[in-house]
Amino acid sequence: MPELDLVLTKYDGTPHRSIRTLLLGTDEFGTWLGTPRGSVINFHYGPTRTRTTTQDAVRVIAHDAWWMAMFLPAPDPTEIYCDVITPAVRSRTAITVIDLDLDVVRRRPNNHVEIEDEDEFAENTGKYAYPEEVITAATTTAATLQKALTTPAAPFNGHHQKWLTHLTSINK
């Protein structure tokens, strides 16, 4: 199974976090990546430098869009975690995105959906001098994701299950 580094940076290019993933495939929604239980997340900020994942998870990085979503299996209280990002740039060995610090999350058990970190987004809008088109794209994307996770529309309607099953089957 091919491996890719998923690299998230801040708007000025400084490293934010990264994780080694398995390239599961692509479909009409985007590029699907798997992170098996035991994957190491590298943090490039704060006192904690790494964390090891405790369960399998899959991510989709939308084609030419401003978001990526991570799908976590039960019993994790977070079902879907969407990062608002700039469109991904892919090389042979990595997918790189700029994390705009605006997130949309759907939680179990009641499917509550909320936009998170609006204060961090506002702070970083000034800190990194986001252009107006970045601000507009990010806020529009967050509102669109909030609606899609509430509806729920594909791929947020269980579509990820086939990719999670695929990851689990190759990770045995």
UniProtKB/TrEMBL annotation:
DUF402 domain sequence ranges: 50-149
SUPFAM superfamilies to which the protein is assigned, alphabetical: FomD-like (SSF159234)
Keyword Hydrolase belongs to the record: yes
Keywords, ordered alphabetically: Hydrolase
Protein name: DUF402 domain-containing protein
Organism in which the protein naturally occurs: Actinoplanes couchii
